[in-house]
């Protein structure tokens, strides 16, 4: 099982969006895929239509070894499962901090299902927390979403610094697949100056810049209708995810 983490140290960078559409893309291609909502804001869980009650198993219980991961997965559709979360996931902070090796925990918890899935896609929280360290440490492949803006560039800088730090201590042994610019704004056939300059600045960093995700209302429509962009007639907007699949397959090989 190849583990892909979407991580970026700021909110609104497209982590949940990329995790959602990448997971759906992999599943649509016939790959058994599990997606992990490791963000206490639980957007991914909500978007996939899973409603947890007080007794529902989630990532929190899996991290704390209170429930087997096999009993915590929710079937979304053919080939796609979810390990969900809710705002109670924030309680994992104290537990992980006491372990002293939080960057290794999630990878260990995922091992029992490694033979059942070909891909695991993790949505990471936007802060440099113990949960974030666990998601990055678990990754074979790291995708860094970054809004095409100054805020996005600064988030990329902080995220790459964290990756370097974790690499130096052996907590991250995967590969940075690249940066995916998010909300790349175009007016007609012309990219806005703000987007272009932001992406040019990203290209100067130590992470390949992959095809950008254009700003489009179709993403929200696809999320609300729980379908793929191609189902709405906008298959061209899926190109960044097609490239991600290719890059991930290279890691697999």
Describe the structure.
It is a single chain. This protein is of the alpha/beta class. 40% of the residues lie in helices and 18% in strands. It has a single domain (2-252), classed as 3-Layer(aba) Sandwich (Rossmann fold), CATH 3.40.50.300. The protein contains ten helices and ten strands. An eight-stranded mixed β-sheet has the order 3-4-2-5-1-6-7-10, sandwiched between helices. The mean pLDDT is 95.
Architecture blueprint of SSEs:
Blueprint: E1 2-6, H1 15-28, E2 33-37, H2 43-47, H3 59-63, E3 74-77, E4 80-83, H4 92-99, H5 102-110, E5 119-123, H6 130-138, E6 141-147, H7 150-168, E7 175-184, E8 186-187, E9 190-191, H8 193-202, E10 213-214, H9 217-225, H10 239-252
Parallel strand pairs: 1-5, 1-6, 2-4, 2-5, 6-7, 7-10
Antiparallel strand pairs: 3-4, 8-9
Helix pairs in contact: 1-10, 5-6, 7-8
Quick gist of this model?
With 253 residues, the protein is of the alpha/beta class. It has a single domain, classed as 3-Layer(aba) Sandwich (Rossmann fold), CATH 3.40.50.300.
């Amino acid at each position: 099982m190849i583990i892909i983490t979407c991580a970026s140290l700021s909110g609104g960078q497209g982590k949940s969006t990329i995790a959602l559409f990448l997971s759906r893309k992999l599943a649509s291609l016939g790959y058994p895929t599990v997606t992990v909502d490791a963000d206490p804001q639980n957007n991914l869980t909500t978007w996939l239509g899973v409603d947890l009650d007080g007794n529902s198993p989630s990532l929190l219980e899996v991290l704390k070894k209170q429930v087997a991961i096999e009993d915590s997965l929710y079937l979304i559709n053919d080939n796609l499962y979810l390990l969900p979360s809710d705002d109670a996931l924030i309680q994992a902070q104290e537990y992980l901090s006491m372990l002293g090796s939080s960057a290794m925990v999630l990878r260990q918890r995922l091992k029992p299902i490694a033979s059942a899935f070909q891909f695991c896609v993790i949505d990471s929280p936007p802060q440099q927390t113990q949960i974030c360290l666990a998601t990055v440490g678990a990754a074979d492949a790291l995708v860094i979403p970054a809004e095409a803006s100054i805020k996005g560039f600064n988030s990329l800088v902080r995220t790459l610094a964290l990756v370097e730090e974790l690499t130096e201590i052996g907590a991250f042994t995967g590969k940075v697949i690249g940066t995916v610019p998010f909300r790349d704004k175009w007016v007609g056939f012309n990219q806005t100056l703000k987007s272009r300059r932001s992406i040019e600045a990203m290209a100067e960093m130590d992470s390949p810049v992959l095809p950008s995700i254009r700003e489009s209302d179709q993403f929200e429509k696809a999320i609300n209708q729980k379908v793929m962009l191609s189902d709405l007639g906008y298959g061209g907007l899926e190109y960044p995810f097609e490239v991600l699949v290719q890059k991930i397959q290279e890691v697999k090989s």
